Amino acid sequence: MTRSAVVLGAGVVGVCCALALRRRGVAVTLVDRREPGRETSYGNAGVLSRSSITSINGPSLFGKLAGYLGNRHPAVNIGWRRVLTRPGWLLRFLWEARPSQVAARAAALDSITASTVERHRALMEEAGIPDLLRETGTLKLWRSEAGHAQAKAERDFLQAHGVASRVLDRQGISEIEPCLKPIFPAGLLIPSNASVDSPGDVVGAYARLFARLGGRIERADAKAIVRNAGGWRVATDRGDFDADVAVVALGPWSGDLLKPLGLDPKLDVERGYHRHLKPEAGASLSRPIYDVDAAYFMASMAQGLRVTSGVDLSPRDAPDALRQIDGVTRAAREAFPAGEVVGETWRGARPTLPDSLPMIGEAPRNPGLWLAFGNQHIGFTTGPITGEIVAALVCGAAPPVDPEPFSPRRFMA
Ligand SMILES: Cc1cc2nc3c(=O)[nH]c(=O)nc-3n(C[C@H](O)[C@H](O)[C@H](O)COP(=O)(O)OP(=O)(O)OC[C@H]3O[C@@H](n4cnc5c(N)ncnc54)[C@H](O)[C@@H]3O)c2cc1C
């Protein structure tokens, strides 16, 4: 029986693992070198994306590749140092884009996105922050008439998976978002998506809820995970933490402490940036928009209008590559009456496995060492269910969905 756990990483995934384990009666210590929710989980677009049942490495990627190679498209920036140093990850990522993978991946992603809004709603109510949730959907927008066909194709695909959406023309778009400039002839409204104001604050509130339920939070830099007589020891700069089980939820850093144990989960990152723009007087946005042709999300946040960039395939710790977010800033002003930039440019790194599914389960050959990372573009969306799957498996209970598609064994023997 598992009596104690140390959870490494207090991003949305780690905090949700810690919470779910605590609810099952486990004594949990949550360790992070920063305050909860200050890294990747801080800077995202805050979308609870129930409709994210495809990944960017789907079959349509092959048609776009030529356009991405010259690093002129806003959706992707390819850092050649990464291509040269980790060609294996990129090749596997492309291989996973083949058409035969679409149905299984959509089913797996559907299983972890379907309940996102209800899970976050319940958590936000319990954490005392229900007002940070906006159940107003998301709006995808195209800048040319050709977008109508794409919007309809996406509507049909989503409908086949039980997700309702509505194709809009210029007039329909301006009826629901009157402050947008009339540059979008086609749109797709997805009402079952939702969003939050300030994802970092949401994670902070979830962490306080965990503490209220008796969880322990330690601010410490983890240096090593080692097996000991009773289970696992996490060595940090502030001392050792021992527990029956250890859960690695270190987001983009998850591979670092696993390598010394001989575990290579094939984790890499898709970096991304955000900036905040000040809306002009009286201008507001009721829901996050995604501008398909300029490849950015724009969402209203406590700090201003947050714009987030596409994928920067540079090494995790390489210096900023600002081409995309500079382009996004210009494109956002074409779409919305937004003025000056407020605050600093932020950079984060989406933790991604080559098949764009998270890794959730016990590490091969290491009983009691649990893995919960790789939630790629939808970690905020899928944090709560990831935590519940981990907690159920750790405690020998039935998980809320089939965990097999997320098994660590798909990349490690
Ligand atoms: C630009 C951008 C936009 C995004 N938009 C969305 C969106 O709209 N919706 C959505 O669902 N997802 C979105 N995402 C993805 C989402 O943000 C991530 O999938 C998610 O935040 C990952 O959470 P995590 O808990 O795994 O990682 P993190 O939040 O990074 O947490 C990992 C934690 O581990 C800690 N840590 C690391 N190393 C150590 C160590 N050695 N010792 C102690 N602590 C350590 C870090 O301090 C950090 O707190 C976006 C991502 C980006 C970059």
CATH topology of the domain at 1-58 and 99-135 and 194-266 and 354-413: FAD/NAD(P)-binding domain
Instruction: Please mark out the parts with pLDDT under 50 across 5 or more consecutive residues, or reply none.
Output: none
Per DSSP, the total helix count is 13
Major sheet strand order:
7-8-6-16-17-18-15-20
Distance between the termini: 25 Å
Shape: globular
Q: Which strand-content bin applies to the residues? A: 25-35%
| CATH arch. level architecture of the domain at 1-58 and 99-135 and 194-266 and 354-413 | 3-Layer(bba) Sandwich
Main sheet specs: 8 strands, mixed
The average pLDDT is 97
Bound molecules: flavin-adenine dinucleotide
Give me the Rg, rounded.
21 Å
Structural class, by secondary structure, is: alpha/beta
CATH class placement of the domain at 1-58 and 99-135 and 194-266 and 354-413: Alpha Beta
Query: What is the CATH superfamily classification of the domain at 1-58 and 99-135 and 194-266 and 354-413?
Result: FAD/NAD(P)-binding domain
| Percentage of residues in helical conformation | 25-40%
* DSSP summary, beta strand count: 22
